[in-house]
UniProtKB/TrEMBL annotation:
<dbReference type="InterPro" id="IPR036554">
    <property type="entry name" value="GHMP_kinase_C_sf"/>
</dbReference>
<dbReference type="InterPro" id="IPR004424">
    <property type="entry name" value="IspE"/>
</dbReference>
<dbReference type="Pfam" id="PF08544">
    <property type="entry name" value="GHMP_kinases_C"/>
</dbReference>
<dbReference type="InterPro" id="IPR014721">
    <property type="entry name" value="Ribsml_uS5_D2-typ_fold_subgr"/>
</dbReference>
<comment type="similarity">
    <text>Belongs to the GHMP kinase family. IspE subfamily.</text>
</comment>
<protein>
    <recommendedName>
        <fullName>4-diphosphocytidyl-2-C-methyl-D-erythritol kinase</fullName>
        <ecNumber>2.7.1.148</ecNumber>
    </recommendedName>
</protein>
<dbReference type="InterPro" id="IPR020568">
    <property type="entry name" value="Ribosomal_Su5_D2-typ_SF"/>
</dbReference>
<keyword id="KW-0418">Kinase</keyword>
<dbReference type="InterPro" id="IPR006204">
    <property type="entry name" value="GHMP_kinase_N_dom"/>
</dbReference>
<feature type="domain" description="GHMP kinase C-terminal">
    <location>
        <begin position="202"/>
        <end position="277"/>
    </location>
</feature>
<dbReference type="InterPro" id="IPR013750">
    <property type="entry name" value="GHMP_kinase_C_dom"/>
</dbReference>
<feature type="active site">
    <location>
        <position position="10"/>
    </location>
</feature>
<keyword id="KW-0414">Isoprene biosynthesis</keyword>
<feature type="active site">
    <location>
        <position position="136"/>
    </location>
</feature>
<dbReference type="GO" id="GO:0050515">
    <property type="term" value="F:4-(cytidine 5'-diphospho)-2-C-methyl-D-erythritol kinase activity"/>
</dbReference>
<keyword id="KW-0067">ATP-binding</keyword>
<comment type="pathway">
    <text>Isoprenoid biosynthesis; isopentenyl diphosphate biosynthesis via DXP pathway; isopentenyl diphosphate from 1-deoxy-D-xylulose 5-phosphate: step 3/6.</text>
</comment>
Length: 303
């Protein structure tokens, strides 16, 4: 038997970061949105544990571990599974791009494992397993548009009346999330304990108006990411000059995302940026969280 689960990339429409806690994590007040770039994770019964990773042409999977350190494999351990599996990951989400690709794989593996073995675990059990795997993993299960607090793992769906069109420009070399957080600490030695709240952003989401949302987008990790990679600042200026309502670094970067006024508007920005950047994608949000796309008998079971 095998089960395939699809999980989406995330962007942060608001990312308020506070001073580091005693455990080293930063308190967050964030608004996540799932957008239409997906990883598919297939978990199959097997004689021995194994993992394979493939990517869409625009995704460089060279940096994705293929051993037990891969977060999808760790997800199966978190699920306390005794049996052996083959895990197959098909990646469309940029690697180390600030779009929670690894978290999507972990969430998808948790759900695929649950469905493969017909466990029917309650949402709160899966969400607790997800939180132990990483701060963004619970959101990858939930999807849509949601507020994240704590270190990002406490997720609560919020009202979002829009259909938002994004242009996504991944970087060729990833950025390390811990490095960007460390740089935030260097730039903000006196950061308040309480992260900035997303009041205006929540109001904008409830109107569905792109111009209003564009004004309310906020990311406290943008300055540190640009300080580490000045070319990201140039990319944001360029995308806005080409007609995007607003550009921003996605999460800890280095992927940049651009909010556009419509699907047609996003296609124009894709065309303009494609002249200078190798990979320019278009995506829409919000989309669903991790969901089963197929459950199959293995070939030898079908005979
Ligand atoms: O939770 P996750 O494994 O995704 O976090 C990766 C790293 O990002 C952490 O080890 C930490 O350095 C940093 N981080 C943080 N505060 C958060 C989330 C992540 O400092 N709220």
């Amino acid at each position: 038997m095998s089960s395939t689960v699809r999980a989406a990339a995330k962007i942060n429409l608001h990312l308020g970061v506070g001073a580091p806690r005693e455990d080293g994590f930063h308190p967050l007040d964030t608004v996540y949105q799932a957008i239409s770039l997906y990883d598919d994770v297939t978990v199959s019964d097997a004689e021995t544990d194994s993992l394979s990773v493939a990517g869409s042409p625009h995704v460089d999977v060279a940096g994705v571990p293929t051993d037990a350190t891969n977060i999808a494999v760790r997800a199966l351990s978190e699920a306390s599974c005794e049996t052996r599996h083959h895990v197959q990951i098909a990646k469309q989400i940029p690697v180390a791009g600030g779009m929670a690709g690894g978290s999507a794989d972990a969430a998808a593996a948790l759900l695929a494992h649950d469905r493969l073995h017909d466990l029917g675990q309650a949402d709160d059990v899966l969400l607790a397993q997800a939180a132990r795997l990483g701060s963004d993993v619970p959101f990858s299960l939930v999807g849509g548009t949601a507020r994240g607090r704590g270190r990002g793992e406490l997720v609560e769906p919020i009202v979002d009346l829009g259909t938002w069109w994004w242009v996504v420009v991944p970087a060729t070399v990833g950025l390390s999330t811990p490095e960007v957080y460390r740089h935030f600490d260097r730039l903000h030695p006196d950061a308040p304990a309480q992260p900035a709240e997303p009041a205006e952003l929540l109001a904008a989401l409830a109107t569905g108006e792109p111009v209003r949302l564009a004004r309310a987008l906020h990311n406290d990790l943008q300055d540190p990411a640009i300080d580490l990679r000045p070319e990201l600042g140039e990319l944001i200026v360029r995308g806005e000059a080409e007609g995007a309502l607003r550009g921003m670094v996605s999460g800890s970067g280095p992927t940049c995302v651009f909010l556009c006024d419509s699907q047609e508007g996003s296609m124009e920005v894709v065309a303009a940026l494609s002249a200078s950047y190798d990979v320019v994608l278009s995506a829409v949000g919000p989309v669903a969280g991790a969901h089963v796309v197929s459950t199959r008998e293995a070939e030898w079971d079908l005979r």
